[in-house]
Amino acid sequence: MYKIKKQLLICVLIVLVSAGFFTFSQKGDNNHHNDNSVRIGFLSYLGSTEDEIQNGFDKFRVFLSEKNHVETNDKFLLSIMKRPRVIKFYDSIMGMLMDFRAGKIDEIILPEIVGKYVLSLGSSFGVKFTTGLLSSGISFGFRKNDTDLRDNFNKIITEMEKDGTLEKLKEKYIGQTNVFSRQSITPTVFENAPTIKVAVTGDMPPIDMFAGDGKPTGFSTEILSEVGKRLGKNIQLINTESGGRSAALLSGRADVVFWYRNVQCTFEGQDPLDELFDDAPDGVILSAPYYSWQKEIIMEIEKQ
Predict the structure, then answer these.
(1) Is CATH 3.40.190.10 correct for 136-292?
(2) Which regions of the chain carry the CATH code 3.40.190.10?
(3) Is pTM beyond 0.90 here?
(4) Which residue in 29, 165, 278, 280 could disulfide with 160, CB within 3.0 to 4.6 Å?
């Protein structure tokens, strides 16, 4: 009998959750799946391509199939073992939700707090079960040569942790999901000061979102405003699609992006996923994480 260790279970969740994502699974007719596969929607992952994630996921399933038996009570892991997943990347959460409702994909993967936010808007999704095998976090991403800027951000994040500012912002945004109560954020303007350009997507509410007036707001955006204030520098918010964050950063269109990071893991034997989930690819460096989560919620479309 082969028992999967906790680190192996974590690896499985990393494959499907990529940055702490959780799954919505859709009930219904799957006759269009000749191979019984489940089509999964990801917001474009910055560290790997769609083909790389698919290849790593397929290799992992081969790894599991080579074992005589896997003993686990985790419903999510059991579902992965029973049916293969087909990966599809999306550059926006809206496009992913539209395809889900249209039956073009069978599952959506989002961070736990983002899923709760979607639920709060009165959608037809319901909770199926939860799992807590993966811990993920969010950091700021910078170009590899911008070490001074990265170090300044780290310094401010540490200060905000010590003086309680970071905790207050968590209480204000995390778990508080009413979109209509959010006002847009206008960072402090400093005359003749340098400007830091930051790419925002609005695709991770309440972390990164837009207010009713169409302007940026959310947990990360308010942290940025506070960082700019303490550094005495201007923060310029630049709207971009989720999948365009790396290009915006590396091209110089933006100096900073929000970066969702995963726990690294390995397990006994050759790890087909090890190279897929590096915290940052070539050309990118990260700040210390300023928020993390451990639970993922697997959800389904409620029966009418």
Answers:
(1) yes
(2) 136-292
(3) no
(4) 165
